[in-house]
Amino acid sequence: MVYRVFVEKKEGLQLQADALLSEIRNLLHIEGVERVRLLNRYDAEDIREDLFRDAIRTVFSEPQLDDVYESPDFGKAAVFAVEYLPGQFDQRADSAAQCIQIISTGERPLIRTARVYALYGSLSEEELAAVKKYVINPVEAREASLEKPATLKTAFDIPTEVRTLEGFIGYTEEELREFIRDYGLAMDEADILFCQQYFRTEQRDPTITEIRMIDTYWSDHCRHTTFLTMIDHVRFEDELLKNAWEDYMKVREELGRTKPICLMDLATVAVKYLKEQGKLEKLDESEEINACTVKIEVEADGKKEPWLLLFKNETHNHPTEIEPFGGAATCIGGAIRDPLSGRSYVYGAMRVTGAADPTVPVSETIPGKLPQRTIVTTAAQGYSSYGNQIGLATGIVDEVYHPGYVAKRMEIGAVIAAAPAENVRREVTSAMTCRRP
Questions:
Q1: Which CATH number fits domain 284-423: 3.30.1330.10, 3.40.50.720, 1.10.287.630, 3.30.70.20?
Q2: If pLDDT is split at 50, 70 and 90, which confidence band does 287 have?
């Protein structure tokens, strides 16, 4: 059986609802909305009724702050609900399920959540659609049914065989463009044409799984295509930047680099040059790839000790552009991950981001993109969510606003970590031979 409960902040504490009302009026310019209510909806299955009732006041709500309803009266409000897409991580549901399991010391129940919006006042169907578009990011969420389901269990239609894309190697360029659109691929026309040429050499059509895998690993998230874009023409209006570029070209010539010029090369060539000159004697190198590690001496209790100082930064520009909360959260998460895997303690973080003007009207948003205000505010929430949960202090937060970031956001998280050198052991795994007894 599925149990359901709605939770809403008490009057005077409905800050999120009030903020959304302000955004609807001032950003969407919908003046007819007079009031907004936001409720968290919890559905639970595989749970005893008495345990569910107890969880209402101990897990799903805080009695001092929240009102609870089994069937709220929305009156004449326009009501819709939003839930995460299947496969998306629902932190609220997962946390609730874990808490209930701790209380019961039994099996973890199945929990699903949704955010319910109730809009009061006078608004047209077009205006309601505009509000839905503003609050629903289709990359991570969808509009949910208002009806309580018979079960929360999902039945998956597992294919018995992988489909082959018949005729793929014979597609025309127009058919390849249609293929990208129809399947919602991240790769561009040059990428799909390269794939076609490859499979022609194998004299076979690919499976949809092969194309999906290539599309994932060639995405801007995994492959950093923006950083690897070849730079074939540069024009400067600033003498300082021009001189820096000329220095870069000289260093490339000294190193004998023939690889294409790109942003990734610009970012890494200085370290390659310093290493070539023998000026990185304190760099700790190993076969592990964690974070940049430097050998230092630390004075502890009047005694000098050898330590390792680790630096790591992570860029999540594209993920944050399309999914601001998760993109920014895993940006700082990725920066934390690497020095942790290097056996160090992460002490502090910094966040440097770039965005277009978040105060522009939503109507001026580039088609297919999220509004700048949504990206800016939700990314900040995602970054702080991850950092707060892991207990990491962020000492510097600096966001640059410039029209150059309107097409692609910049999201950078960086951390500093350290560990006593004696705590870090470097070894190389050897091949293991399996022998029968």
A1: 3.30.1330.10
A2: confident
